[in-house]
Specification:
With 428 residues, the chain is an alpha/beta fold. The protein folds into 2 domains: 225 residues, no CATH class; 189 residues, TIM Barrel (Alpha-Beta Barrel). The protein contains 20 helices and 7 strands. The strands form 2 sheets. Strands 1-2-3-4-5 form a 5-stranded parallel beta sheet, with helices on one face. It has a two-stranded antiparallel sheet with strand order 6-7. The radius of gyration is 30 Å and the shape is elongated. About 3% of the residues have low confidence.
Length: 428
């Protein structure tokens, strides 16, 4: 499942990088190739540049490290590195040696080093021109190099001890690490010793970004660490109605849109609403109810690509008043048991839905406690959902849902965080 917050941080940061480089040409430092400041007065545009510079590249490398962690969870390291080589090293090297040489020639032949370079052999000059004109391609080259280093570090931490330790880091150490990195960046990178090899640290600057890259992989990729950071998360979810007549349309929609969470429910049977009671009119209610469960079996098997099965046994919604069937009858319990077996094979999560309580339809959850006990016997995971149709109903019935889950033997519920489902202890 795609982490949209990573995409959003990336494009915002890239725009700020662009803004920085535009302002850079109008800085008041007299940088070679720059246009210079506006007049002789204060250059307020420089403030923006100095604010942006310390953090936008480290952030991009942190995000790259996080993405590397997620990618390596899905594929072997060897295959991942092959893809990195094809996507990063090959095209960037072609760009450096076939496109950057012209830019490098302008940079070197119009600069103070022109005379010393002129005496060098042709291949050496071409290499210098190519490197001098590397421009933004250094970032792609560096990503490939750091990916190689990452594989070496991962092999050294084959048992995952370092990874586990990094996941336990607190907020204060995390802040201190950021401060120390900034200090190192300001002293070693931004202000090299003018009496020494001036610019030497700047030459090794790409290697300096190994620190935020590894921090992204080993620290910030942990869900616990991400949850410590202030953030607003807006997830994109949908509840879909399972019906044999619209299976293909549903599949196309789910392929077109990258939903964070999908709830699959049965809302119509044979073009009738089974919850209002009209579906049962003129029918044997045992056969009618069996048709409902049969639809769940079929659609769970056919649809496949969803997370949660919504409001099971919701047919009880009107049963308290209309009395379609006896909920204590053996045939009904047998049907529920068969349903639980099917769900267990699917590996899906079942919601404990308390929407009926909020809307006054039924002062109980879907599923009932008895059905929840059956689900628990098959180790089927659950999540608590309000099914709220307005803001006021978000927590109405929550306590009953928790009580029912505990009564059925559940000690944990499932919740979605950073694109993955996690277990959480039920607070009784």
């Amino acid at each position: 499942m795609r982490r949209h917050w990573i995409d959003n941080l990336r494009w915002v940061t890239v725009l700020l990088v662009l803004l920085y480089h535009v302002i850079y040409f109008y800085n008041n430092k007299g940088v070679f190739g720059g246009i210079g400041g506006f007049g002789n007065g204060p250059q307020y545009q420089d403030i923006v540049m100095y604010i942006l510079y310390p953090w936008f590249m480290p952030l991009l490398f942190i995000l790259a490290g996080i993405s590397a962690r997620y990618a390596l969870e899905k594929q072997p390291a060897k295959e991942w590195f092959k893809k990195r080589t094809r996507k990063l090293l090959v095209p960037s090297s072609i760009g450096i040696f076939f496109l950057s040489a012209g830019i490098g020639w302008i940079n070197t032949m119009t600069g103070p080093a022109a005379e010393s370079i002129a005496a060098l052999p042709g291949p050496v000059k071409y290499l210098i021109w190519s490197i001098s004109g590397i421009g933004p391609l250094w970032f792609i080259q560096d990503l490939w190099l750091l990916s190689l280093v990452l594989l070496i570090v991962r092999k050294m931490d084959a048992k995952g001890k370092f990874m586990e330790l990094c996941g336990k880091i607190g907020l204060v150490p995390l802040i201190l690490m950021g401060v120390f990195f900034w200090l190192g960046h300001q002293t070693l990178i931004m202000e090299p010793d003018p009496a020494g090899a001036n610019g030497l640290w700047n030459l090794y600057k790409p290697l300096f970004y190994l620190i935020p890259f590894l921090m992204g992989y080993f620290i910030f990729a942990h869900d616990r660490v991400q949850e410590m950071l202030p953030q607003i998360k807006i997830l994109k979810g949908i509840e879909i109605g399972m019906h044999r007549n619209c299976r293909e349309q549903v599949r196309q929609m789910m392929e077109q849109y990258d939903f964070d969470q999908v709830i699959a429910s049965v809302h119509y049977l044979e073009d009738a609403d089974p919850y209002s009671g009209g579906f049962f009119e003129g029918k044997d209610w045992k056969k009618a109810y069996g048709r409902y469960l049969e639809t769940i079996y079929d659609e769970v098997s056919c649809l496949g690509n969803f997370d949660i099965i919504g409001h099971l046994d919701i047919l009880r919604k009107r049963n308290s008043t209309v009395k379609f069937f006896d909920e204590n009858s053996q045939w009904y319990k047998n049907e529920l048991s068969a349903t639980a077996k099917t769900i267990a094979k699917s590996g899906k999560i079942v919601e404990v839905n308390y929407g009926g309580i909020a809307r006054g339809s039924l002062m109980d959850t879907y599923p009932s406690v008895d059905f929840l006990k059956m689900l628990k016997s098959f180790d089927i995971p659950i999540t608590i959902n309000s099914d709220a149709h307005n803001f006021d109903h978000i927590d109405t019935g929550y306590e009953i849902a928790i009580k029912n889950a505990i009564c059925a033997g559940y000690t944990e519920t499932q919740y979605l965080s950073n694109g993955r489902w996690h277990s959480q202890k039920i607070d009784s």
